[in-house]
Design goal:
heterotetramer; A: alpha/beta; Rossmann fold; 12% strand; B: 346 residues; six-stranded mixed sheet; 11 helices; disordered C terminus; binds thiamine diphosphate; binds magnesium ion
């Protein structure tokens, strides 16, 4: 069984904008609820929300077909929901339940579902993604691997080792840098010298960039990029300049308020809502809320794992 | 005056160190105020010493390597690894650079580097942000591994580490940051006799009976120190077992003497650590004790460690993996109840 | 037919593995023929299987990470680290990726990865090309650490590692490559009784007296295996001390049973390793034995390890640091001569 | 006490070409003798010779002043001899003697002398060099740090972490890539994708390249580069395309013979010899041989360290 985001997306009725909006609304509603649950003390530990960046996930992942692979990072909720459309499994996971995505073992940052993988250690997944793409290449499959990384993660040397190998060996992998201008508390100009796109290009691969939080625009651009990688069997390096509207994890936002305010105008949800038929956005927001309600009710009813299950593992999916 | 907590002690020490010595430089991720580092150990420093606090890109190997170069050239850099879990990324700089240069350059260079690494779980941070992996750094020739506890003066240990000419890995248990220091004069220590060895990295020994008739030596460090003492208290009250608690601050090189002295009194050894057990610090302590206090042991030594799994995100799995006070009490009871004796002959 | 040496056994096994299973892929530096890898373990493979031998850039962390991704996606990659000394560069992929995924993904993924790492000194390669650092990789939950010796079938161990669904670190002592295999039927083993445990990673036990009246258990692995047997022979001939030699091939998880059985016969334990001692494999073996064979031990266990320094380039310093046959003999004599006995009571 | 290569070089009589040649001849004679000693079984272990690349070392290092710092790699003999002019200390070191550079502890790859450091693990020294440069910057000194790395070492992620930090923080460091077209047995096209200079530039620093084995040409170019780094306090990334004419370490050369032959025409020694006054090169060769004879005689007479000295160390120099 494989997830086929493109088939699912293409099979839905309605204009592209509405369908993208519906997904973004689900991600937003999901994460706002998550933050509420943390505030209310129902959740414990940490989480990283994707608020403000939803257009990236929906713009890219809806082009993936069955068997395509996604590697995601600490900020994975949006990627996962666009990929799977299964909020209840992620919610149960974050709530530590036995029937969560990975039985409560991974929590918010460490999830796996079909061909989707995430890890909370910065950088390592980039090499893992190249390996996944090489596995595909060596076995003659036609799948594409997409890996998401942040601007800050461009600090990790393994990223460049990975770019070099992907380029040398011709790995069908799409590197997506989500440049949200900050790495935790550090602004991009204190973490990154030179030019992001030039870094990709210096390793001998096609590379380009886009500054946008417009889901439709991103969707259109990435359709071509995903197919380019699939057809050429070569890597591509794409930088999306965007912005994170929430704190890094929880209650740790010390950025200049005025800067954050300025970027609210680019919030991908209102930006797209304004172009939908009147009332549609509100309706889709309500639907998203209802799905989150439902997911939460389900997740709350799920059991916690048993301490004795430490060594066991659910049957391989 | 309120007793400081571990975090405050470390932070104050950093301020004092940077004030006193211009060679002290701080490097790591997200160090700048108002953020002041992920756990706030570095708070205020970038404001007070803007030139000497370098907030770095996410480049653990690289900035540790930069710090090694600084140390080679006369500075005294302190590196903060945001989560100790990421220390493996920097490990080659410790193994093949920082610790190699002084010896392989035949004393022509020193590398007075301190790498601070917050370790430990019990905060629900999941498998990659909760580990205690310091054991993997034990026994690199030339690397000193120091771990404060609330029963030591963490700030003084940090100062001694910075003043040491050798590279030091300084392991800070995350849960411990908020704990108040527990010195000899504190109310919480009223019933406890405290002894300490001399030197920059002392071992503190605690006893509820003045080291008179201990039946068991509990050895612990860092985040397990308070658990060890709490277990000793319960053992005394609930089970009438008198345990001495021995808390080294220097994991390597290890001063076995205070442990050996205690084992020679008690005949029984229990070692706790928050990390997993295999080839861990506890293995070394048990092995050393078996070698050097063989005749004194009247029962098999025992280790209480994390179980041999990653640390799950959900609380029930995290609790099941990490060693708990109950585990210490249970293991202590079983080792004391195995009242084997032996007679030493020729 | 000449007996194969360790190198030949490994190389033949790689050929057979790649022939039999298209999922097996080789990655590492300088693997291509005619060079065939720094130590020639990979010779001929790039000619026979050009698509599945990826000679890589000098990117230890990166290509190990690529292999992890391949393994997650159904391949069975084998990574060669040119010198085991460089393994720290790749360590994060072992700690936080390869070993974490299977457990933290709740069994939804496996990472059947083998990382081969030539270790060890005695070749005059100096401080950064001579180390045995496998101890730093012991006790990562989920990581299997295997080390062949001439008394095992190295190729079979490698095949078992590749067929294992868990990540395996496969430690190859460099000096051992040229040594001939020493199976039960060989002339060099005529006087030796050989026992072996079952399973994919057996422990081989050797005795010059048929396991009749051993006084000492010598435990060793990899490059120290032949040293251990040579010492046992000298102990018997020169000092009339009967030693059993126990050689695990799997360092972690460790099957203590054959060691424990031997210690219960001999009452004395000596553990050898080429790496430095602190928190090493020997610490774990001694600790486990102290815990689990406490009543059987009649003398303090002892470890023979590298001394706690880097490995100098010049021979006199290399020899002085690394454990030698003489050291094993000397330690063995002292442990046997400390004829302490004890009576176990209630 | 500090070594001042520039003062030494400027203080010598004769034309620049002759002085550069004399240094190259010493390096060449030294290494050929070393290889002979290995062949004759007097040396043990391994070594990496610089034959064919001598023009780089002399072209660069003669611009360094007292207090300037050099980080070198496994292929360090040429760098060291150009820096120190002390063949006997290195020879004694490689021969494992107590009075060698580092008492026999380091051997061929791991040496230290005044402000010169080398290590045999690829990549790590690049970060160390940035640290040395930052130490200089923070203490207000005016020294420049030079670090040598090979084309193959551009595979290591730490190189890019280091470039990024050097550029972000403004470290006065000169990165010198000696692209000798091979990394051990691997040709550059199997190890490196994209463009070397572009890699440096992508991290926001000035970067350029030169294809040359002409010591005078390199000497002229690097005078400006070293001073640029000193004056701007910013890093520079320079790639020298050259060629290694010897094996990687010992007896491990499996490169196409015809390729190696072709590059013999670029051997920096005959190339410069042809431009010296008649007979000068031969005379300088003989002088170099004589110095190596002398160094060898001295080194052979030196004692080995005592096994008991394991923990000790000579007083800090
Ligand atoms: C190896 C490693 N170092 C540090 C961290 C801590 N950390 C988690 S997220 C983060 C910032 C990442 O920034 P960026 O890549 O820009 O992603 P963003 O959070 O902005 O999405 C840091 C430093 C980590 N998880 N892994
Ligand atoms: C981290 C590390 N990986 C691998 C090696 C083994 N090794 C030594 S030299 C070398 C090739 C280096 O190539 P390059 O950087 O081009 O330098 P060159 O030898 O050509 O001067 C390799 C792979 C090493 N010393 N360090
Ligand atoms: Mg970011
Ligand atoms: Mg090269």
């Amino acid at each position: 069984m494989s997830v086929d985001p493109r088939q699912r997306f293409d099979g839905q009725p309605g204009p592209v904008g509405e369908r993208l909006y519906a997904q973004m609304a689900l991600i937003r509603a999901f994460e706002e609820r998550l933050l509420l649950l943390f505030d209310q003390g129902e959740l414990f530990g940490t989480t990283h929300c994707y608020i403000g960046q939803e257009a990236d996930a929906v713009g890219i992942i809806n082009h993936l077909r069955a068997g395509d692979v996604v590697f995601s990072n600490h900020r994975c909720h949006g990627h996962f929901l666009a990929y799977s459309d299964r909020p209840e499994l992620l919610l149960a996971e974050v709530m530590g339940r036995d029937t969560g995505l990975v039985g409560g073992r991974g929590g918010s940052q460490h999830i796996c579902y079909e061909d989707f993988y995430s890890n909370g250690v910065q950088g390592g997944i980039v090499a893992n993604a190249v390996g996944a793409a090489m596995a595909e290449k060596l076995t003659g499959g036609g799948a594409v691997t997409v890996v998401f990384l942040g601007d800050g993660t461009l600090g990790e040397g393994i990223v460049y080792e990975s770019l070099n190998m992907a380029s040398l060996w011709g790995a069908p992998v799409l590197f997506v840098v989500e440049d949200n201008r900050w790495a935790q508390s550090t602004p991009v100009d204190k973490e990154l010298a030179g030019d992001m796109v030039a870094r990709g290009r210096a390793f001998g691969m096609s590379a380009s960039e886009i500054t946008s939080t417009d889901a439709v625009e991103l969707y259109e651009r990435f359709g071509a990029l995903v197919e380019q990688v699939r057809e050429t069997g070569r890597p591509h390096f794409e930088v999306i300049h965007t912005y994170r509207l929430c704190h890094h994890s929880k209650s740790d936002d010390r950025r200049p308020e005025e800067e954050v305010e300025r970027h609210r105008a680019d919030d991908p949800l209102p930006k797209l809502a304004a172009r939908l038929a009147p009332g549609r956005a509100e309706a889709l927001d309500r639907e998203a809320e209802a799905r989150v309600d439902e997911a939460l009710a389900w997740a709350r009813a799920q059991p916690f794992p048993e301490a004795s299950e430490l060594g066991g593992a659910r049957a391989k999916a | 005056m309120r007793r400081p907590n571990v975090l405050g002690s470390l932070n104050a020490s950093l301020h004092a160190l940077m004030e006193a010595d211009r060679r002290v430089v701080l490097m790591g991720e997200d160090l700048l105020d108002p953020y002041g580092g992920a756990f706030k150990v570095s708070a205020g420093l970038s404001t007070a010493f803007p030139d000497r606090v370098l907030t770095s890109p996410i480049s653990e190997l690289g900035f540790t390597g930069v710090a090694v170069g600084m140390a080679l050239r006369g500075l005294r850099p302190i590196v903060e690894i945001m989560f100790g879990d990421f220390l493996m990324l920097a490990a080659d700089q410790l193994l093949n650079h920082a610790t190699k240069y002084p010896w392989m350059y035949d004393g022509k260079a020193t590398v007075p580097l301190v790498v601070r690494a917050p370790m430990g779980g019990r905060r629900g941070y999941g498998p990659t942000h909760s580990q205690s992996i310091e054991k993997h750094f034990l026994g690199m020739p030339g690397l000193v591994v120091v771990a404060p506890s609330p029963f030591h003066d963490p700030g003084a240990l940090l100062a001694a580490s910075v003043e040491d000419d050798r590279p030091v890995l300084f392991v800070e248990n995350k849960l411990m940051y908020a704990r108040l220091l527990r010195g000899a004069g504190d109310a919480s220590m009223a019933d406890v006799t405290v002894r300490s060895t001399e030197g920059a990295f002392p071992t503190v020994s605690l006893s509820y009976d003045g080291f008179e008739e201990g039946e068991l030596t509990i050895v612990a460090y860092g985040g397990m120190a308070e658990l060890g003492l709490a277990a000793a208290e319960r053992l005394l009250i609930d089970h009438e077992i008198v345990a001495e608690v021995v808390l080294p601050s220097c994991l390597n090189p290890l001063d076995l003497a205070p442990i050996a002295r205690s084992v020679r009194r008690t005949g029984r050894l229990l070692v706790c650590e928050e990390g997993t057990g295999v080839a861990g610090w506890g293995s070394e302590v048990v092995a050393r004790a078996a070698e050097e206090c063989f005749d004194a042991l009247v029962a098999p030594p025992v280790r209480v460690t994390a179980r041999d799994f990653p640390i799950g995100n959900t609380r029930v799995l995290e609790d099941a993996v990490l060693p708990q006070e109950d585990d210490v009490v249970r293991a202590a009871r079983s080792v004391v109840e195995s009242r084997k004796m032996r007679v030493v002959g020729g």
